[in-house]
Design a protein that fits this description.
165 residues; alpha+beta; 4 helices; 44% helix; elongated
Amino acid sequence: MPSGLPGPAALRLEFPQSLAVYDDYAAAQRTVDYLSDNKFPVEQCMIVGTDLKRIERITGRLTTGRVAAGGALSGLWLGLFVGLVFTLFTDGNGLATILSTVLFGALFGLVWALVGYAATRGQRDFSSVTQVVATRYEVLVEHKSAARARELLAGLPGSLPDPFA
């Protein structure tokens, strides 16, 4: 019977049991790799990241000039792509087609970016990158193989075979 964990069937285990809990993904991955090296059926394992948090790293201040330049450059690339596609299907002057689509793309990107920036009304005058990360990683294993996994894991130096450690 599939576990109560949400998600597609490929991400489910039958009656999963906790094998170990780690503070970083590398340690959880090392555990599964160790089990694999010892011929354990790792398709019965799962690494679950829990206690999710969102991290946002501010990368710079947004100004009208930066927004305009970024929009124009983005539009330029789109225009170049469209121009190259057009030249594949036309018999006319390919260079003129590419140059015109690049110019239109840059203009479109510039206007679109400035309109979007103006719509924020100064509420977000910075650029950033975000990532969702887990603060804990739990290695789960199917109940039928949990005892064998614990035996193997006891031989891994620095492992945490006790899920409550």
